[in-house]
Amino acid sequence: MAQVFGEVAALYDDVRPGYPDEVRRGILDYSGRPDGIVELGAGTGKGTELLVGFGTWLTALEPDPRMAAVLRTKFAQVDVVEATFEQWSPPERRPGLVACALAWHWMDAATRNRRAFDTLAPGGALAVFGHKYAYADPVQDRVIGDVLRSVDPTVADRADHWVRDVVVASGAWSDVVERRFTSYPVLAKRRYLQLMQTFAPFRRHTADEQRRTLEGLDAAIDGFGGTVRLELRTSLVLARRA
Prior knowledge:
Layout: H1 9-15, H2 21-31, E1 37-40, H3 48-51, E2 58-61, H4 65-74, E3 79-81, E4 97-101, H5 112-119, E5 125-135, H6 138-151, H7 162-170, E6 174-183, E7 186-188, H8 189-196, H9 200-204, H10 207-223, E8 227-240
Parallel strand pairs: 1-2, 1-4, 2-3, 4-5
Antiparallel strand pairs: 5-8, 6-8, 7-8
Helix pairs in contact: 6-10
């Protein structure tokens, strides 16, 4: 699992959006209240915020010590383990839920489904949820896309239903379902530029590429009147260990 966010851990925690309560209710409706949770790639706790509401023991795996430090500060009741999923060994007491918020793509693709399956108690559930960032205004979508591709022509989005598809394709799970929720937050220019600085493709760019990206977006958003209206697409993929 890559560690690309630690140097902006505080900014990440500030500007990344949390998850709507529909995600919690979706998990509850699907599998009931879990007896124990293991969260994968917890980051600074955007998913943890929702999961602590189940009122059960929670172990959160986060390999980056800078992200884990923020997580511990926010959630003293959570057992934070600084390890990747691949490095970690499950406890004897198996959880009723394995959850992963916007980090499934960081798990080893060849082993993530089987490891999650084997971590769970019999009858337990997997919940993978996350946001996809799109734009409600087609003009903003086109212009922002042009700016990003001018700096990095290889930039591309994952398919809308990729998590569901890879969970199904693994053959490990039963009763795979996907639920989707959409919201439309409006961000002022400064907030949007801060958000951009927490995305992995931006973090991996050179300093010059980062500068060009921010300058291009700054000018583009001025042309929009100073705000960006997102189309925040939240997906929840649920699966059961039979």
